[in-house]
Amino acid sequence: MILRLYGLVPQLGLMLRIGALQASLAILQGLLLGTLIPILRALLRPEPDFAAATPWFLLAGIGLLVYGVLAVISTPIAFTANMEFTAKLRHRLMNHVAALPLGWFTQERKARLARAVTADAGAIAHLAVTIGGPAITATLVPTTIIGVTFAVDWRMALLFLTIMPIAFLALRRAGRIVSIADEELEEAATHIAGRAIELGQAQPVLRAAGQGSTGTTRMRAALDEHRETYRRGLRKSMLPDLTYTAVVMGGFAAILIAGMLLLIGGELPIADLVALLVLAVRFLEPLGNLIELIGALRAMDNGVGRVRAVLNTEPLPTSPRPVRELSGIDIALSGVTFSYGGSARALTDVTANFPAGSTTALVGPSGSGKTTVTRLIARFFDVDSGSVRIGGTDVRDFDPTVLLNDIAIVFQDVYLFDDTIEENLRIARPDASRTELEEAARAARLDEVLNRLPAGWATRVGEAGSRLSGGERQRVSIARAFLKRSRIVLIDEAASALDPENERAVSDAIAELASAPDRTVLIIAHKPSTLRAADQVVTLDEGHVVEVGDPTTLRESGGLFAKLYDQYEQARGWRIMTTVDN
Ligand SMILES: Nc1ncnc2c1ncn2[C@@H]1O[C@H](COP(=O)(O)OP(=O)(O)OP(=O)(O)O)[C@@H](O)[C@H]1O
């Protein structure tokens, strides 16, 4: 368990300090109790011998003082260790998940990750420090007492020695059952967390269906499952708990009977029996506490297992000699085949070139693979076969930070952090000057929004940007791309209707982003104006490239692009009519 913990947070110095401190406290406690023997032997004579007891009293006094000082020192050390362990573990987890393929982040795994970062990391550090110490005490105090007992009566010491392994065997069994129950309970708790996230996300749909307050049946089932698992766990662990308690109580009875028999037989003086009974109580008490601790320790071990499972997930492989800069900004997909894990392919043998400085419109029916192409270029996933190259280099050979720095992505569904507009922009470039921020805002037509808002740059956008409209959120996202000065920009143009003002602003901003000659732009396009302005069009259908060419020629050829273009224009006509009518 200790090795597993060390593997998770390799803080050898800290662990040794805490361990040594706790071990010293435990051994000192046992030895202090040992001073009782000479003291009682000296005092429980027909003529009490105070002179013989005095040095032992003095020794016990000094021991108590040292014990007190060590106990006081250990509190701040344990507190600091707890904080340090938690922070290190959380950082390790966050750094690791940042390198995982996006496909890993399913609803269930997101819930597990949330619990690993919050509950597990906190509990592991807390338990390692606050339960680890008492666990050391609960093991070392009885061990020291056995040693001390040998000095009094070897037969009684052997009895103490026999009780300990029997108790540990009973404890092991109880621990195993507690561990299984804890794992089942954690599984049920993770289900609840997953369903709770789902419940939050599905609120609009549930309310529309009149079920906002009752929740989903899946959520109710998860709660029932948790309750039942808890009950089952309690039932299962009751018998081993009782067995262990019986061993500990039985141990005391055995010591008492054996001591009385030796006393009656004249083989043990009364002073030694009294001292041995006090030692027996202190011997069995920490052993008794172990049953409480074992549950917590097993829970910690399970937590360690869960955190390790996240940390053991393979990130996307990195090249041993990663390329640290782009040598060009042309993009080439060559024979790319990719599926999201199931049997259905999202892309099949896709070959397409996106020349440096050009703007390409990616077009195709829903589900044809447009978003997948952009995800593979940004290396959110790795291709199953074929290659994606930027400036002639396979994206798998780049240092991942190169792609993060040189590619800007303007998603349709923009995620904003619950912070000010300024901070949401600074994510793209934390050290941007005020002038750079303002230039980016102007280019993205965000300045109009900022002028309208009373708090301007300091406006808080609300959770996930909920206080801004969809178009305004997109302008923030485009401003991020300008600020980042990325030489490759991947845009998912909104397919749904924006209000005319936002639509014009977003279109103008995208056009400006695409007009730079030193930028390669890919737009998943739905608007006739964007399609017309593109240097080339790549049409996808069911994961295959079906057309490549300039927009005018493709429109005249009457193929899939021409059909989609007409549909977009018709939809736009309807929207304009509806807007005018309103
Ligand atoms: N995360 C995912 N997990 C599993 N399958 C996915 C995932 N994302 C997309 N797919 C599937 O891959 C195929 C291509 O999807 P993709 O999102 O690339 O299409 P698209 O052309 O961008 O569609 P749309 O225009 O509707 O956004 C679809 O069949 C889709 O169901």
UniProtKB/TrEMBL annotation:
Residues 19-299 form the ABC transmembrane type-1 domain. Coiled coil: none annotated. The chain crosses the membrane at residues 20-44, 56-79, 154-171, 242-264. It holds the Pfam family ABC_tran. This is ATP-binding cassette subfamily B protein. It is found in: Cell inner membrane. It is a multi-pass membrane protein. GO terms for cellular component: plasma membrane. Keywords: ATP-binding, Cell inner membrane, Cell membrane, Membrane, Nucleotide-binding, Transmembrane, Transmembrane helix, Transport. InterPro entries: AAA+_ATPase, ABC1_TM_dom, ABC1_TM_sf, ABC_transporter-like_ATP-bd, ABC_transporter-like_CS, P-loop_NTPase, Type_1_exporter. Belongs to the ABC transporter superfamily. Siderophore-Fe(3+) uptake transporter (SIUT) (TC 3.A.1.21) family. Residues 331-567 form the ABC transporter domain. GO terms for molecular function: ABC-type transporter activity; ATP binding; ATP hydrolysis activity; ATPase-coupled lipid transmembrane transporter activity.
